[in-house]
Structure formats: C-alpha cells, structure tokens
Design brief:
- The C terminus is likely disordered.
- The chain is built from 9 helices and 7 strands.
- The longest helix is centred in the N-terminal third of the chain and has 32 residues.
- The protein has 343 residues and is α/β, with parallel strands linked by helices.
- Helix content is 37%, strand content 12%.
Length: 343
C-alpha cells in the first residue's frame, strides 16, 4: 500500500507547532545551562552578568508560551541575586556633590603662557580651560579711616558746624568691633590664649599688640555685652526651674605667686537656655549670689554632702535640692523657707 506524501492542513499545522516547540525547548535549555554556569561554574567559565541578561531577554519567537515567559522572569530574578562567594553589588551612589562649595565667592585669575605675555599681538585666543581650586585668604589687619565731614548751613554760616557722632566702643580706643570679635573667638572658641595671639599677630602680620591691651579690650567687650548676658540670664530664670553645676578651674592670683582654684558655674533649664558665672567657691553663698532674691522656683544643683549643710543654713530659694556626688549616695535635701526652720 502506498503512503501519500500529501499532508492534510491539520497535520501541517501540528508539524509547525512541534517544530516551534522544539526550538523553544532548545532555547530554554541554553538559558538554563548559561544560568548554571553563571551560578555554579568555575571562575574562568562564568559568564558576564550583562551577557547572560541579554540572553535571557532575547527574542523567543512570536509563538512563545506564557509558561516560558514566567520561567524567564524567574531566571532574571535569580540572576539579580548575588552568587555564592561573590561580594554584594554596591548600592546606588548618591548624586555627586561639587568638590568646591558653590556658595563661595569666586575670584578669577587668568594665567597665560610666557610666549603670549611676551608678544600678545602675535597670538589669538581660541578657548580656555578652567580649573577650580579651593583657596583660603587668612585674616589681615587694615587701617579703617572714619572720615567725619563737617558741614555748615549755607544760610547760617555763623552757626557752629555739624559733624556725625563718633560711634566707637571707647574713646581713644583703636580696636574696631571686628578686631574684638576676632580676639574673643580666637580665645574662647579656638582656645588661643592672649599670649599666643600676641605672638601670632607680631610674627605673621607684623602688628605689635601687647597682651595688656588685649586684656583691656576683652574687658571692654564684656562691658558692652553685659546687657546681652543679663537678657539670657533673665530668660533662663523666667522658666521657674534651674539646674546648676560647677567645674573647678585654676587661675592666676596676682600677688600670691601661685595659682588658685575657682568655680565656673553653669546654670540652665530643660528648655535649652544656659548662662555661666564665675565664683571663687562652691558653697551656698555662691548660689545665693547667682540666684536673685525673688526667685522662688525649684533649683537642682550637684554638690558635695558637706555643702548641703551650708545650703540649709543659707537663704536660698525654696524648695532646693542637692544631689551628692559620692558613689552610691544620692541626697535629696528639701530647702524650706527660713521662717519654717526652727533649731
């Protein structure tokens, strides 16, 4: 019996589908083999991640089944995970910040070749290269001349002339406010004593400023800043609750030939206000000097146990507590008003 070589339309359609499935099966096997080599192969046989990803995202033909698409997505998710023994990929870096802050003022400096500076008429500029550097201009001394002009009225020339008032910190003082600010910041923020500032100004700037003058200028600044200090102190005490603590500091005592110890008291409240005061001791009389007479709010201070007895004998605000610094000892001593204390 002779078999006909002609296929029916149904048979031809099934033959095409079988051939397409074979090609898809071969492609999926290639992808699985590449993924296995990527994850578990030797370092010399491993594929680059980009090559494997391009293989996974390749065109599988228009008749690719939905199942193969899901398998490809699963393989891509598996590829995204770091392989065993390999370092984790770096996180995405933030946008790079400018190396030189852009808010700083810019100073342009043009640098030309020597050949151009010698014969500028023989050269023509065709472009430029800009290199940005971070520079620092150290502080400098200068002579500030305050010129106050005298005027006389045109229609009253017989009257005395008028002149603007001289607004200086002190009469006949040569220190400008900017110089005082520099001395204060250098001493209390940059921890430069006056004798070091004296040496720096003389050696680096050629300006001789005796230490005695610097001390007088600091005292002048204290007098001018006294209203600001009093305002801060009033705001701290207005909260009705004060926390106090002291730190001993050695200071020079003129005429004694040796150093003595005083206390720098810090007073503040939980709201953030703080003011400092200098006292020669740490007893109850010092606290009485710091707090005003009309202050009747609670006050918490760190004191030694022997000091607590002095607090009880002093005229301190009521109530007042002292917390002992002795290891394992905490003293809470309520301070009652003197009229309620008998014996």
């Amino acid at each position: 019996m002779m078999v006909s070589t002609m296929m029916s339309p149904r048979e031809a359609q099934l033959t095409q589908e079988v051939e397409a499935l074979r090609q898809e099966n071969k492609l999926l096997r290639d992808k699985v083999d590449a993924l296995i080599k990527r994850l578990f192969g030797a370092s010399s046989e491993k594929l680059d991640a980009n090559q494997l990803l391009s293989l996974l995202q390749g065109d599988d033909g228009p008749k690719k089944a939905e199942a193969s698409s899901a398998s490809c997505a699963a393989l891509e998710a598996e590829l995204a995970k770091p392989a065993p023994g390999q370092p984790k990929p770096d996180k995405q870096r933030r946008a790079s910040q400018p190396r030189v802050p852009e808010h700083l003022p810019a100073v342009e400096e043009v640098v030309d070749p020597i050949e151009v500076t010698n014969n500028p008429q023989d050269w023509r500029c065709i472009g430029q290269e800009v290199t940005e550097l971070l520079d620092f201009e150290p502080g400098r001394f200068l002579r500030r001349l305050l010129i106050r002009r005298k005027y006389v009225h045109r229609d009253a020339s017989h009257e005395p002339p008028v002149i603007a008032p001289l607004n200086t910190l002190q009469e006949r003082s040569i220190a400008a406010p900017e110089l005082l600010a520099q001395i204060i910041i250098a001493k209390y923020c940059d921890h430069l004593p006056l004798f070091r500032q004296e040496r720096i100004y003389a050696t680096r700037h050629g300006v001789e400023l005796p230490r005695q003058s610097l001390c007088r200028w600091l005292k002048l600044a204290v007098e001018w800043l006294q209203p600001v200090y009093e305002q801060i102190k009033a705001e701290v005490l207005a909260a009705g609750y004060v926390q106090m603590d002291e730190t001993h500091i050695d200071y020079l005592s003129p005429g004694h030939g040796q150093t003595k110890t005083a206390q720098l008291w810090v007073c503040g409240n939980p709201h953030g206000g703080v003011f400092y005061t200098w006292q020669l001791g740490r007893g109850a009389d010092c606290v009485a000097n710091i707090l005003p007479v009309d202050f009747d709010g609670p006050c918490k201070a760190m004191v030694m146990p022997p000091t607590v007895a002095m607090w009880r004998r002093a005229k301190l605000p009521s109530p007042c507590w002292g917390v002992g610094r002795m290891p394992g000892v905490t003293l809470w001593r309520p301070r009652m008003k003197r009229r309620n204390m008998r014996g």
